[in-house]
Design brief:
Layout lengths: L8 H12 L4 E5 L21 H9 L4 E5 L4 H8 L8 E4 L4 E4 L2 E4 L5 H15 L7 E4 L4 E4 L6 H18 L2 E6 L2 E6 L4 H12 L3 E6 L5 H11 L4 E7 L5 H6 L2 E3 L1 H18 L4
Parallel strand pairs: 1-2, 1-10, 2-3, 10-11, 11-12
Antiparallel strand pairs: 3-4, 4-5, 6-7, 7-9, 8-9
Helix pairs in contact: 2-9, 4-5, 6-7
């Protein structure tokens, strides 16, 4: 099989650059919906079979690999077995946490998170949140999931105004996602986290793969970095729940299964090349 080709000129140029100089390239990935299929209970999330092994193989061929996730860094490492990937950097909580070599470095948690933690359960009760609504405490943020409800989109519509008001009062921001609304600190997103990591590690080519609205800032960062001479390709792990991400991507693959196949083909191509 041949590597699928990006639909954009910029994406094709970046893929060519990665294949020609893999040691000067970085590959970075979202976790949920990208490396791992979306599940009703985030605590039961697990990587798509074989995909972490593909990432580990890439780690031996590229300059660097990373995961950028809204989850706590240690949670993503534990659920994904990411400590199997040599030299990987895991940026958790949209970059507020960094896991490397078994150690987490984290920024202070804003006081607004405690405000939301105290008030959110009562707020959901007063709103008569539909049965199946589930509150996830991520430590540095809190997320309200509606995937288990009878009408997930309707539940989000019902809850969103009050959640936005609470977030504003606590000086937090609202991050919409796939049947979830997250209340999290200001000033951190996957775009700024990815940009900072690129500045630190200095790749000449960047591949980023994501699936959800929270990945759009990272896609935008890849586009912005092109103006600084860094070739970049955005890959969407597609779903019908976040079509805007596919529209912003250079290359679309069918979910984590499609990404696993893409990474396998990329590993094969790199090993067959003179640089591999």
């Amino acid at each position: 099989m041949f590597l699928p080709q990006p639909e954009t000129n910029a994406g094709r140029a970046a893929l060519d650059a990665l294949l020609k100089a893999p040691r000067q390239a970085m590959a970075a990935f979202d976790f949920d919906g990208t490396l791992a299929p979306i599940v009703a209970d985030p605590r039961a999330s697990a990587p798509y079979p074989g995909i972490v092994e593909r990432v580990a193989e890439l780690a031996g061929l590229l300059g660097s690999v990373a995961v950028v996730t809204g989850r706590p860094a240690e949670t993503a490492v534990g659920l994904g077995g990411l400590d199997r990937v040599p030299g990987i950097t895991v940026l958790g909580h949209y970059g507020a946490e960094r896991w490397t070599n078994g150690r987490v470095v984290a920024a202070p948690t804003p006081p607004g998170v405690d405000v939301v933690r105290e008030e959110l359960p009562g707020l959901l009760d007063r709103l008569e949140a539909p049965e199946g609504t589930w509150l996830e405490d991520k430590g540095r943020s809190l997320a309200v999931h509606t995937r288990r409800t009878a009408d997930p989109d309707g539940a989000l519509t019902l809850l969103s105004p009050a959640l936005r008001e609470l977030a504003e009062r606590a000086d937090l921001r609202v991050e919409p996602g796939r049947m979830v609304i997250e209340l999290r600190p200001q000033g951190v997103d996957k775009g700024s986290a990815l940009t900072a990591l690129v500045a630190e590690t200095g790749p000449r080519t960047l591949l980023y793969a994501g699936d959800d609205l929270g990945d759009l800032p990272a896609f935008e960062a890849v586009v912005a970095l092109r103006s600084q001479g860094i070739e970049g390709i955005n890959v969407c792990s597609s779903s019908e729940e976040a079509t805007a991400v596919a529209e912003a991507a250079d290359l679309v693959v069918p979910g984590p299964a499609g990404l696993a196949e893409l990474l396998g083909l990329l590993v094969d191509a790199l090993r067959d090349s003179p640089q591999g």
